[in-house]
Request: fold
Amino acid sequence: MMATLQVRIDDDLKKSSDSLFAGLGLDTPTAIRIFLTMAQEHNGFPFSIAHRREQSESKQAMEDARNHTNLYGPYHSAKDAVNAMLED
Reply:
């Protein structure tokens, strides 16, 4: 006997998932069956679920971008940046 599983998801998520799985030669229901089978084998999620810890430097850069501060880096001009890259 087979059960039916109905899930409401965002239209864009459905379309992008269908495309992703099609690229792997699968349809979405098959991908979901694989996920559920692997969850049973692992007795939980078949991958780690955790908050990503951002590096302090990356976190500061994202905060600067949100606040529109320190956007120009250590160089005063593009020419200075290029010259720094060309230095041995």
Notes: The chain has four helices and no strands. The chain has a mean pLDDT of 88.
